[in-house]
What we know:
By secondary structure, the chain is α+β, with helices and mostly antiparallel strands. The protein has a domain at 1-50: Erythroid Transcription Factor GATA-1, Chain A. The protein contains 2 helices and 4 strands. Strands 1-2 form a two-stranded antiparallel sheet. Strands 3-4 form a two-stranded antiparallel sheet. A hairpin with a 6-residue loop joins strand 1 (19-20) and strand 2. It is elongated. Keywords: DNA-binding, Metal-binding, Transcription, Transcription regulation, Zinc, Zinc-finger.
Amino acid sequence: MGKEGPCYHCGIEQTPLWRNGPPEKPVLCNACGSRWRTRGTLNDYIPKHALKNVQDTQTDEDSDDHSGSSSTSTNGNTKKKLAR
């Protein structure tokens, strides 16, 4: 039986290939494992599939927030205001 997730770095539970990682993160998804193998570090790395999950979560949280922190354009699309 091979390695199983979730990935110790990004938390994804399904990947085409589970890879070895550093001792503190022994099981990595294909994306994180490839990054570890080629660069030798996972610092400042977030795979695209994890970014998509973060954006989906933020969108869900934004839809629950009715504090007026977003504006609606004339075509009905919601735009986030950037904090300055």
